[in-house]
Amino acid sequence: MIPNWSQDKYVQAWDFACLAHRGQTYTGETDGVFYEYINHPATVAMEVIHALAQHPDYQGDVAVQCALLHDTLEDTATTYTQLRDIFGQPVAEGVKALSKDTSLPKAAQMADSLQRIRQQPHEVWLVKLADRISNLQYIPPHWSVEKVAAYRQEAQLILATLGEASPVLAQRLEAHIRCYGNTG
Ligand code: NI
Q: Ligand 1 centre from 82 Cα, in Å?
């Protein structure tokens, strides 16, 4: 089977994301363990590539580049115009939809983003499903029980809203939700 994404497009987005997120880290499962931030987009892209094998009709390059770049607007100095000029409009629009609108009240930001993602092609939906799979990998040590419960519930909303774009990712997200917060 011929893959529907290209290594060159992957490397182009990977290099950009590495520079954009340079110096950023996040805490691991144990306090005091820090990962390079780029670890997260790399995991999201891996999930997306895995899912693309089930969807030969999807524009793989858009999905992979959106995955690698999905946090650049929200968390770095990158602008929409830069993304559009370098990666093209479909990728820039996808990343924009995947970014929270911080002018809205915090409680409304996820529903708004999900609604904008649903107006995008399915390739962008895959990225949000993969993003939450990656973010459910473990619970940051400082999170309260309430925060964990809310995050789990939000994951269920993502699954219900976008799951139809990819049965393989929907299944993986469902499995991660089931295990999330089960410490017993
Ligand atoms: Ni993310």
A: 19
Q: What's the token pair of residue 33?
A: 């363990």
**69, 83 Cβ separation under 8 angstroms:** yes
pLDDT higher than 90, residue 94: yes
Which class is 7-179 in CATH? mainly alpha
Q: How far is the CA of 4 from the centre of ligand 1 (A)?
A: 23
Contact yes or no for 71/40 (Cβ under 8 A): yes
Total-model pTM: 0.95
Alpha-carbon distance of 117 to 22, in angstroms, equals 27
Q: What is the DSSP string of 63-110?
A: HHHHHHHTTHHHHSS--HHHHHHHH-HHHHHHHHHTS--TTS-HHHHH
Half-sphere exposure (CA, 13 Å, Cβ side) for 137?
A: 13
Q: CB-based contacts of 9: which residues, under 8 Å, 6+ apart?
A: 61, 64, 65
* pLDDT of res. 181: 80
Between the CA of 8 and the centroid of ligand 1 the distance, in Å, is: 22
